[in-house]
Amino acid sequence: MEKKLLTTDILIIGGGTAGCYAAVTAARKAPGTKILVAEKANIQRSGCLAAGVNALNAWLGDGQTPQDYLSFVRWDAEEIVRDDLVLTMAEGFHDAVTDLEKMGLVIQKNADGSYAARGRHNIRINGENIKPLLAEEVARYPDIKVLNHVILTDLLTRGSGKKRVCGAVGISADGSAAWGILARAVLTATGGAAGLYRPNNPGFSRHKMWYPPFNTGAGYAMGIRAGAEMTSFEMRFVAQRCKDTIAPTGTIALGVGAREINARGEIFEEKYGLSTSGRAYGVTEENRQGRGPCFLRTSGISSQQEEDLLRAYLNMAPAQTLHWIESGKMPSICDVEVEGTEPYVVGGHTGSGFWVDEGRRTTLRGLYAAGDVAGGAPKKFVPGALAEGKIAALTILDDLPDLQQVQWDSIDGQMQAFFADYESRVRPAAAGESSGSDVFALEEAMQKVMDEYAGGIRTGYQYNTVRLGLAKDKILQLRNLAGALAVSSAEDLYRIYELLDRLEVCRTLIAHLQARRETRWPGFGIYTDYPIRDDRYAMFVNSVLQDGEIRMIFRPLPVL
Amino acid sequence: MSVMIDTGRCICCGACAEICPGNLIRIRQGEAAFLPHPEECWGCASCLKACRAGAITYCLGADIGGRGGRMRVVQEGRFSHWIITLPDMPPAGAASRRTRGGGFGDGIALSENPEISAETERILTITVDRNDANRY
Ligand SMILES: Cc1cc2nc3c(=O)[nH]c(=O)nc-3n(C[C@H](O)[C@H](O)[C@H](O)COP(=O)(O)OP(=O)(O)OC[C@H]3O[C@@H](n4cnc5c(N)ncnc54)[C@H](O)[C@@H]3O)c2cc1C
Ligand code: SF4
Ligand code: SF4
């Protein structure tokens, strides 16, 4: 394995929505600053935006203010939000969106030139090429160097107690090289975590999920291992999506105004509330009570509407268009069946992620977080991820004078240990080694444990104290097994680290579920021993990994 | 969910392997691109858009309703032509668009593919204009 060493001023881990925009912001503001984006795939089409999006879901329309957005998010998240984070994010929507338009994004306009709204907080776009446009913008700045196909696995840190993050290590996606990168500041922007739970389509189409299966929670895991404080992992996200393709439903619900109905044709949304969790709960509950499956009532839409839907999905979830046509069950004739997804950990929709300050500094010096990996500010969507990338970049520029580059020799031992671990895990399979405990088998085992014991689809998102205890034991056992994993081809090496990262996230998630002894977001999960909201838990549930143990920290909500 | 790579059409340029957000596509010197684990495909269609040789088609696994239909995309400036080829099976359940008698609007045209026997396959093309914002 070849070893490659680099130094930079700012290292950005993950060239997705937030990461690309952070890089652009820093390059514009402080020319001459060296910026390195390390991306596991290719920033042209990586992360959430790979297939495109149809709307920008965070926007202040009709004279709305950041304060209004905060009220909306606080209501939707049942109070567990950080006011400072949501406000600063919402203040950035306008500039981020107009900047996207300057980059070439097609945004639908009203006759007066204002953006055409789709609901209160959405604007309609043709976003098939949104990621290539961001990548093009990145390419304009010579100070930004992009390393595509480099998967980072761990942070490099100095000191104990209040640690300083001073770089990161990783491997090439094909396993050909090990990378060591020293940086004065590190921004993690790796997105959320999918594939922790048994997915909706566990067979051949196991990766036909909503959230990108390639966002494995690496940023969370790196942060957890380095001792960063995390918040609200227990606020999982369960989305309500089109059956089979797990494609977004907003385009149908908001676009053609389709209402949700159960198998008897009854509209049920009023019964469960209109928050994100309430809507997800409605579908689960109707199913539990024998009135499933549920549908979005599209039958009767005009042929023009149908055609628009087919096109809209090609711009973001092409499988859904193919599904309609292939099945012959066109939306104007047949209602669209919906189902709840596996639970994801994703700080862009709910509040899970790094505990950060207003400038998006994590609790580790030199480490910053933005986008789906950052906690406390739900409902970021594309505009919020961009806004956070920008905020983090500006904070980093402010902090840089105080962040000196560490010397290679002071970090060499730590780096060599990571490199040795990479090398030790590529070796020919020993005779008699069973494939029952290979990386694929362990991933499946992990998803099964989470599904059955930590509130997955199988239990209708329900869990209890006994189940969570079993989940914890079983995940630790799988972690032990995974610790000894090896692969025979270097091309498969990254799989081991993805699995280890997911297991780390699962372990933290279970501890958070155990700690919040109430049911606050019934659509995202029901703690059956504590089935109702209990305002003694009107607080943040946070955690830190210390000496191998997860320590929970309860933090009060901001005083209003 | 997966994609299929036509080894006859593939010109081994590597564009698909470069772009896939999951690094799922492998390319070896002088050989056609391949997916060692087709079941790991997310279905984002990035590789289809990157392939200038039109060698990649998109299909749904039988577990999510696939029954042999294929989709590919041809890009022409700001227009993307999504070409869907259906096997000639009566669609289960509901009537297909063809039997409803109505027109298909400007951009959606149903035509028989001259290259493939009209008795066995049906082809549908949907064109998306990048300059059109979504109506939804
Ligand atoms: C299918 C889907 C549809 C959506 N539709 C909309 C919509 O219509 N409107 C809207 O406003 N929002 C939408 N969203 C939400 C929005 O896209 C996300 O909230 C936002 O893009 C998140 O940005 P991010 O930068 O945090 O994550 P991403 O953009 O996913 O970026 C994370 C990046 O990190 C990289 N990475 C991961 N791990 C590593 C590692 N170990 N080393 C290096 N790189 C790594 C990934 O490859 C990726 O490029 C949608 C999300 C999804 C999944
Ligand atoms: S459709 Fe997307 S995930 Fe699947 S192989 Fe192509 S680029 Fe990769
Ligand atoms: S992009 Fe097309 S032609 Fe190029 S390697 Fe991939 S399949 Fe072959």
Tally of alpha and pi helices of chain B: 2
- Largest two-chain interface: A-B, 70 and 59 residues
Topology, number of strands of chain B: 6
Low-confidence stretches of chain B: 91-119
Give a verbal description of the structure:
With 560 residues, chain A is α/β, with parallel strands linked by helices. Chain A contains 16 helices and 20 strands. In chain A, the strands form five sheets. In chain A, strands 1, 2, 6, 7, 8, 9 and 16 form a seven-stranded mixed beta sheet that branches. A four-stranded antiparallel beta sheet of chain A has the order 15-10-19-20. In chain A, strands 11-14-13-12 form a four-stranded antiparallel beta sheet. In chain A, strand 7 and strand 8 form a beta hairpin. In chain A, helix 1 crosses helix 12 and helix 15 packs antiparallel against helix 16. Chain A is globular. The mean pLDDT of chain A is 96. Chain B has 136 residues and is mainly beta. Chain B has two domains: 56 residues, Alpha-Beta Plaits, CATH 3.30.70.20; 70 residues, no CATH class. Chain B has two helices and six strands, in the order βααβββββ. In chain B, the strands form two sheets. A four-stranded antiparallel beta sheet of chain B has the order 3-4-6-5, with no helix packed on it. A two-stranded antiparallel sheet of chain B has the order 1-2. Chain B is globular. The two termini of chain B are 25 Å apart. Chains A and B meet through strand 4, strand 5, helix 7, helix 10 and helix 11 of A and strand 4 and strand 6 of B.
